[in-house]
Write a structure and sequence with these properties.
The protein contains 8 helices and 8 strands. By secondary structure, the chain is an alpha/beta fold. InterPro entries: P-loop_NTPase (IPR027417).
Length: 228
């Protein structure tokens, strides 16, 4: 189930500086805040999230990507889903939900006896595998940025993760730009030009069509004026 008409909400052209300022204001709102960035494969979600966290610094923000919850290749082969890697059912969605709930409640759970630090998984593109307990999330960091394809997807259990996100952005470059970035990313991580194009126009494109249908559920739809 996806939203039927994402065209009903406008796309705002914004600069990176504007988004950094908006993120900083969110971090200073008080308590734990969670910013979610979503968009189709190749949109630039990871790069934007990394830039925002780098600009704010480790005392204000930390990045926890959804990609850390990719099923391992061994599991995907067992489930006969490896050819569709990146589809919504190739993630440990309930694991991601549980982590986002913990992150949301983290500051209140910390005590003098226990600092409440959470260790989140990370996806290594050079290995094409998730690595557990790789990202330190301290209880005193006010802003957690999470990014991933299915943050606004309406099928269960994804809405449970969206429920604890304070602000959700949908990153929406032009289709030409998105495909160029996606093909370049695949080549950067070892695929031949032909393989990169086949993946981008095949399984990635099917995922993109589903994800684009979720855009209307975002708090803000954005197109960057800057080259990341």
């Amino acid at each position: 189930m996806v939203n039927e008409d994402p065209s009903t909400t406008p796309v705002h052209e914004v600069s990176l500086d504007t988004l950094v300022d908006r993120s900083r204001a969110l971090a200073h709102r008080g308590g734990r805040q969670i910013l979610g960035i979503t968009g189709s494969p190749g949109a630039g979600k990871s790069t934007l999230a990394e830039r925002i966290v780098a600009e704010l610094g480790p005392e204000l923000a930390v990045l926890v990507p959804m990609d850390g919850f990719h099923f391992a290749d061994e599991v995907l082969h067992t489930l006969d889903r490896h050819a569709r890697k990146g589809a919504h059912d190739t993630f440990d969605a309930w694991g991601y939900v549980a982590l986002m709930r913990r992150i949301h409640d983290q500051p209140g759970a910390a005590s003098n006896e226990r600092d409440g630090t959470i260790y989140a998984p990370q996806f290594r593109r050079d290995l094409e595998e998730p690595i557990g307990s790789a990202i330190e999330v301290r209880a005193d960091v006010p802003l957690v940025v999470t990014e991933g394809n299915y943050l606004l997807y309406a099928a269960q259990p994804w809405p449970h993760a969206r429920a604890v996100v304070d602000e959700a952005w949908f990153l929406e470059p032009t289709e030409e730009q998105r495909l160029t970035q996606l093909i370049a990313r695949h080549e950067r991580f070892g695929r031949s030009p032909a393989e990169a194009k086949e993946r981008s126009l095949g399984s990635d494109q099917r995922n993109a069509e589903l994800i684009n249908g979720t855009a209307a559920a975002a708090d803000l739809r954005i197109r960057l004026l800057d080259q990341l």
